[in-house]
From TrEMBL:
It comes from Yoonia ponticola. One of its GO terms (biological process) is sterol metabolic process. Gene3D superfamilies: Cytochrome P450. The keyword ATP-binding does not apply. InterPro entries: Cyt_P450, Cyt_P450_E_grp-I, Cyt_P450_sf. This is Fatty-acid peroxygenase. It is an enzyme of class 1 (oxidoreductase).
Length: 415
């Protein structure tokens, strides 16, 4: 058996933080390999890239999630006791709860709520000198997803809940005061969510049967018990938070429409290009750099030994831009998605494998449907100017956004 190639230096944490989207793929290319070994936060870690690596990462029996997530990410982004840390039968059972929310008509209803928000917001945008698009989209998505989930959101709480939900995904990786603010946001959101779960159980709040609040409050785990309030709160936030985070993809969509303006006319003329366009945004614009797991019990792959307990990182962004899977991988070419055969391992912006049995994101259809709705609206229903601003995406920042959060001017509705 060969020994796994090693990255330079004793610990790669800083190099990874400085170059979160390129570190794994660039190191693999330099070493001419699909995987290498290093230390991250002083822990031995195997880093992997590419579709073959994704296939082994998502094979059911080799890797587990329990204990794979750094504590600071659990205390902010994910919370404790939620689906992300479950394995085997417990995971597959809990996953059914999320998948039951993803019916086509139910997702269309959420899209309808966002379109309604756009119609409500547009007159105000016309009246303003400038619109910070990211801020407005986060607010609209907070309102839409709360309504969709059956979560009451009084007008006076909209700004606070939007800011708290944003802190979970924007500041999860931060160090210092921002990290502490994200922890506080999680604490307050979990208390709020657990209160609503209790109200549903006590019959004081009666959301519709198909709403996330109802489904989660009444869900029974494999042992037949309802979820402890804190865990149910974490799972409700596992729907609210990432739906608000779709605002990042929506700003990236607006960014792509600006950077590749020839696509505006194409999209106006051919509705069939909308999906390829947003898929190309999901492939090429960076969001989550990697996902983590641990080796369940020692196994061998491509002649290399993966020792029990070792942490493994799968490179999502590098796999989406791997030249072995994609022609001209760094070029924005939505046409590539027109006739592409589906593959669970080479296009993995929201994780890979199977939605029911692996940890692949159950919210992919929500992300695509929301991106399409906003993209269609920007192309067909409004005209606007993009303010002269620095539109570089700060890739040291997670998730990467333009510094001014995409400022639009002279927004007017097409009649
Ligand atoms: C903003 C766009 C989104 C991105 C970039 C994203 C990304 C991801 C990634 C990378 C994973 C982990 C995959 C893995 O561990 O292998 C994941 C899991 C998950 N996502 Fe998303 N996601 C997004 C939107 C959503 C939405 C809208 C929902 C709403 C339901 C959602 C709910 C979840 C849940 C519950 C999991 C855990 C699944 C499991 O452990 O089985 N995500 N997502």
């Amino acid at each position: 058996m060969s020994s796994i190639p090693s990255a330079e230096g004793f610990d790669s944490t800083l190099t990874l933080l400085r170059n979160p989207y390129g570190f794994i793929s660039q190191t693999c290319r330099a070493l001419d390999t699909d995987l290498f070994e290093t230390r991250i936060l002083l822990q031995k870690t195997i880093c992997m890239t590419g579709s073959a690596a994704a296939e082994v990462f998502y094979s059911d029996d080799k890797l587990i999630r329990a204990g794979s997530m750094p504590g600071r990410i659990q205390k902010t982004l994910l919370g404790e006791g939620g689906i992300q840390g479950l394995d085997g039968a417990a995971h597959q059972h809990r996953k059914k709860m999320f998948m039951s929310l993803m019916g086509t008509e139910h997702i269309a209803a959420l899209q309808g709520m966002s379109l309604h928000m756009l119609d409500n917001y547009a007159p105000d945008w016309e009246a303003r000198n400038e619109v910070v698009f990211y801020d407005k989209v986060r607010e609209m998505l907070t309102r839409a997803v709360c309504a969709w989930c059956g979560v009451p959101l009084p007008e006076a709480e909209v700004a606070t809940r939007t800011a708290q939900l944003t802190a979970l995904f924007e500041d999860a990786g931060a160090i210092g005061p921002k990290h502490w603010a994200a922890r506080l946001a999680r604490h307050r959101l979990e208390k709020w969510a657990a209160g609503m779960i209790q109200q549903v159980r006590d019959g004081e709040l009666q959301p519709t049967q198909e709403s996330a609040l109802h489904v989660i409050a009444t869900w029974r785990d494999l042992d037949g018990a309802i979820l402890p309030p804190k865990v149910a709160a974490v799972e409700l936030l596992n729907v609210l938070r990432p739906t608000v985070a779709v605002s990042v993809f929506i700003v990236q969509t607006a960014h792509a429409l600006h950077r590749y303006p020839e696509w505006q006319e194409k999209l106006r003329n051919d509705e069939g290009l909308l999906e390829p366009f947003v898929q190309e945004v999901r492939r090429l614009y960076p969001f989550f750099p990697a996902v983590a797991a641990r080796v369940k019990s020692t196994f061998e792959w491509q002649g290399y030994r993966f020792p029990e307990g070792c942490r493994v990182l799968l490179d999502l962004y590098g796999t989406n831009t791997d030249p072995r899977s994609w022609d001209a991988p760094l070029e924005f070419r939505p046409e590539r998605f027109r006739d592409r055969a589906k593959n669970q391992y080479d296009f993995i912006p929201q994780g890979g494998g199977d939605h029911y049995t692996n940890h692949r994101c159950p919210g992919e259809w929500i992300a695509i449907s929301q991106m399409k709705a906003f993209c269609r609206y920007l192309v067909n229903d409004v005209k606007y100017d993009v303010q002269d601003q620095d539109l570089e995406l700060g890739t040291g920042e997670l998730p990467p956004l333009p510094e001014n959060r995409f400022i639009m001017r002279n927004v007017r509705r097409r009649r």
